[in-house]
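User: Show me a protein chain along with its predicted structure.
Assistant: Here is one chain, sequence first, then structure tokens.
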Amino acid sequence: MTPRETPVPPAIAALPHDPRGYPIPAITPRDAEGNPTFAITGAARTLICAIERRCSICGTPMAPGPVYRVIAAAETEALTAAHKAGQTATNKAPSPEPPGHRACMLFAAFTCPFLARPNARRGQDADVMGSALTRGTARGSSTESGTEIGGAVAGFADYEFRYTPGSNQVAFVFTGLTELRTHQLGADQVPELIKALTDAEPPVGTCPPYLLDDEDAAAAYAGALLKEAMARSRNAGGA
């Protein structure tokens, strides 16, 4: 089964698509020519999704409850080990990767080239949380009990985020592991994706215009949200 043959969550199907027919996630920024830059996440778009509790893939609201993300092999093994040891499994290392709906992350695990395979390599250079990720950087895999682990779709009870104006980056911390679906390849998640879509409720709302094609609109809206947040902070401090 190829990505194009995979059942698609309706909210993802409604997103803009690139010339190849692939949906463009809400957090994917556009370059000066309006083309999506899949190798990085847009700070403005990520901040909007964090503040408004929107799925980073489809851009529609996330209901109260667990949020999900696709994690790499090292994170998967760390969370698995903590759970087996009876420890509270959390993902407290700041991550630039925002959360989303369960079905959207199951879909991303298979269709995103960098997430789908543990030996996948980045197609473009990127600067993430102060670390330079060069073209060709491998996602990585590891082995536990003789079984290769390429990553997982993980659910968390809650998340927090912080925005650093100087670096123009958003970092997330996830707490309260609720689910850990490991995979060797992202395609291993397809049966669960099919089941999730069969049982899913219709999406709530649509992706707003400021998370679609217009990069200037995303930047302007994120700036307005920041001003509102700063004003609330000043008012709270003076109360």
